[in-house]
Each structure stands twice: as structure tokens, then as C-alpha cells.
């Protein structure tokens, strides 16, 4: 009689599940196999362009934005921080990112004196900065390792966190040279438009995912 080990039986079941129409409860089989289930699945739909708004510059109305998932709560957001195309005369070439920390806007320069504008969160008092850098690395669902200075200020935070929906860096991160700063997503989208970070530029996850598709390593970043 042929002996079937637990692992081989599970492998057969998983293979059968994979060859059958997908069901929401099939994933538990894979979680039982060695090497599976160590990290939450970050499978996501094919990237799509974010919907663009048309909001007057002086519009200060606050809207309620649906959460990004069934588990996520709705949150308030000033309408002016929704992504939209605006007139933006500039000598910078298309693809350049300009961040106006005072206005809480990130501009992606486009042709014809226009820019795609996103709302952002910026450094809180004492953590403001300005300068010119370039994107040197891009990451999807990045891990987060707080720098030593942050660990000293906030000893209760984890020393490392794997990428995922609860990670403070959110869905995407753009790394800026040798600095400690990044343009990244956020698990706190209601903070967009505020000065709350330790210097990084934070965006809503759907917005940073959209920006991520439009830029490349080497693009210039100007922080005002």
C-alpha cells in the first residue's frame, strides 16, 4: 500500500485546488505547506490610473472618502487634496516632482505648463526640510526599519516591520538618495494635508500607487 505523508497529501490537495475554479477559501491549503504563509499575500489588482478631480484652488470643503477596502473606515479629506491636473508654469522638464511643503501639494510636472497635483502630508514642526534630490530606488509594499534617531525618540515602535497594509510606508515608496526621507503611502490617509511626519512625504496609497506608475529611478525631486 502506498504511504502518503501529511505534506504530500496537502500538496495534492493544493494542486487540486489550483486546477479548480478559484474560491475564497482555497488559500488555507497553501498556508499549511512548508514555505507558505510566512508573509501576508499582497496580491492586488492590475494598477489603474487614479480618478482625477476638478476642484477650485479656493475650495476648502471637506468630503468623506470611502475606505480602500471593506475593512478600512471612511475618512474625511479636504477636497483640494484630491489628485487633479492643474496649470503649473515651470522650467523643469516633465517627470520632475516638485513638493510644496507649505501648501501640502506634490506636483508631477507634465508637458504644456501643467502638472498632476496630489495632496501630501509633510514633516511636523522641527522636521521640515528642503532640497533637490533624485529617486534612487522604488519599492512596492516596502518593509520599514526605523532609523536609530526615531527609535530613540519613540522607543516603543517596532525595530522592523514587514511590508503590508499596516506598515507606515504604505503601498509604495520612492527613496531619495542617501537621505532618510521617502515619498511613500500611508495607513493613515486622513492625515493628508497635515504636518505630522518625521520628514517623509506621505500620500494616500491609491495616489502613491498612481505616482509610482508615472515616474522612474533618476527622476528629479525638488522639495520647497
How is the secondary structure organized here?
Elements: H1 6-19, H2 27-32, E1 62-65, E2 75-78, E3 84-87, E4 97-100, E5 105-110, E6 114-119, E7 122-123, E8 131-140, H3 148-153, E9 172-176, E10 182-184, E11 195-197, E12 201-202, H4 205-214, E13 220-223
Parallel strand pairs: 4-13, 7-11, 10-12
Antiparallel strand pairs: 1-2, 3-6, 4-5, 5-6, 8-9, 8-13, 9-10
Can you describe this structure?
It is a single chain. With 224 residues, the protein is α+β, with helices and mostly antiparallel strands. It has two domains: 1-38; 62-223, Beta Barrel (L,D-transpeptidase catalytic domain-like), CATH 2.40.440. 16% of the residues lie in helices and 25% in strands. The chain is built from four helices and 13 strands. The strands form three sheets. A nine-stranded mixed β-sheet has the order 3-6-5-4-13-8-9-10-12, covered by helices on one side. A two-stranded antiparallel ribbon has the order 1-2. Strands 7-11 form a two-stranded parallel sheet. β9 and β10 (182-184) form a beta hairpin. The longest helix is centred in the N-terminal third of the chain and has 14 residues, at 6-19. The model is unreliable at 1-41 (pLDDT under 50).
